[in-house]
């Protein structure tokens, strides 16, 4: 059996910071409210496209993997819900920028769960023997959607990208267990208005607005991610005590803490960077993976659980053997 080893990782963090104090200059909010309700202190704003962010993260991941010729790559899979262009897909622009001329290129939209969905897909293609090398990216320019007159959503989101390189390997590492799902019944409780072909083609539409029922999403995110973690542990025949690191989607520090207390992991096993970047949707997990490696939280042989929840309402959890 082949495995899909993670051989490289990289990120792209846009340089421009927007702090809570900056936001309080343009909307009726303050640092105290944002920090206590969400854990966010600042977020990054990109003036470059989602494809540009994805390209930089992917290049860093390829460098980390020691891959000099991107034409060795068979697949560029880009998780995003803020594509630079709908047609052609954004992954094709990344493929072009990387010069990964032999690679298939495809976008995956499962909102905040998108990176784990994409990781599952690329891993399965490698395990089946169909391909040998893939770059899996989560990249978002979420602030493009933000209506800066809405304080409820305006404070939550940020821009950025993270990526991993997967390579076929005989070593039993990489994604060893995964559960993904979608509770579509209540998909309307988190959506973006005025986007897609449901808008009237012949009438001018207003700006896109990110609308959500915060408290309902909060409860469902905690329940969804906790259940998904339990399910994936059962799938791989492990207990939570076998887990070294939890990489949760970074939507709200209180959501992360609620999941942590339900699964009963110590503080030093949980990766948190929401204070610096806010919610970067599909990019939170690959950025967090990257920083967990950089800061020594993820080490060789670490057993990692990652979980996400997002629009759809999609959810996912993955067990990764480092
Ligand atoms: N600054 C100051 N006050 C604010 C702000 C703000 N930025 N935003 C809302 N308020 C006010 C509201 O108007 C409300 O005032 P009122 O009581 O006078 O009506 C009050 O604060 C409380 O608002 P709530 O919505 O009840 O606040 P809550 O404690 O639920 O926190 C939050 C809101 C942070 C959005 C929380 O519900 C949450 O994190 N939900 C889940 C995350 C989420 O939905 N993310 C969207 C993406 S989905 C995902 O990534 C999983």
UniProtKB/TrEMBL annotation:
SUPFAM superfamilies: Thiolase-like. Residues 107-183 form the Beta-ketoacyl-[acyl-carrier-protein] synthase III N-terminal domain. Gene3D superfamilies: 3.40.47.10. InterPro entries: ACP_syn_III_C, ACP_syn_III_N, FabH, Thiolase-like. The last Arg residue of the ACP-binding site is essential for the weak association between ACP/AcpP and FabH. HAMAP family: FabH (MF_01815). This is Beta-ketoacyl-[acyl-carrier-protein] synthase III.
């Amino acid at each position: 059996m082949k495995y899909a080893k993670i051989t490289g990782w990289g990120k792209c963090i846009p340089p421009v910071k927007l702090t809570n104090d900056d936001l309080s200059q343009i909307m009726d909010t303050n640092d105290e409210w944002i920090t206590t309700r969400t854990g966010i202190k600042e977020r990054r704003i990109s003036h470059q496209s989602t494809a540009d962010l994805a390209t930089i993260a992917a290049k860093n991941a390829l460098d980390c993997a020691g891959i000099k010729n991107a034409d060795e790559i068979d697949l560029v899979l880009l998780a995003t819900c803020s594509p630079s262009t709908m047609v052609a897909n954004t992954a094709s622009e990344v493929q072009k920028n990387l010069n990964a001329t032999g690679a298939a290129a495809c976008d995956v939209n499962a909102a905040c769960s998108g990176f784990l969905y994409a990781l599952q897909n690329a891993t399965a293609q490698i395990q089946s023997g169909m391909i040998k090398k893939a770059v899996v990216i989560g990249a978002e320019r979420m602030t493009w959607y933000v209506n800066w007159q809405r304080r409820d959503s305006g404070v939550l989101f940020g821009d950025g990208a993270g990526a991993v390189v997967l390579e076929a390997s005989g070593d039993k590492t990489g994604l060893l267990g995964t559960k993904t799902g979608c509770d579509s019944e209540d998909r309307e409780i988190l959506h973006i208005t005025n986007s897609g072909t449901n808008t009237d083609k012949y009438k001018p539409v207003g700006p896109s607005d990110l609308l959500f029922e915060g408290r309902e999403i909060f409860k469902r995110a905690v329940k969804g991610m906790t259940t998904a973690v339990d399910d994936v542990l059962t799938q791989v025949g492990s207990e939570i005590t076998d887990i070294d690191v939890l990489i949760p989607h970074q939507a709200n520090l209180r959501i992360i803490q609620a999941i942590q207390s339900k699964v009963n992991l110590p503080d030093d096993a949980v990766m948190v960077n929401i204070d610096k970047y806010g919610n970067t949707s599909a990019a939170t997990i690959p950025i967090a993976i990257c920083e967990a490696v950089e800061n020594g939280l993820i080490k060789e042989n670490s057993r990692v659980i990652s979980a996400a929840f997002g629009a759809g309402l999609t959810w996912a959890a993955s067990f990764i053997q480092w």
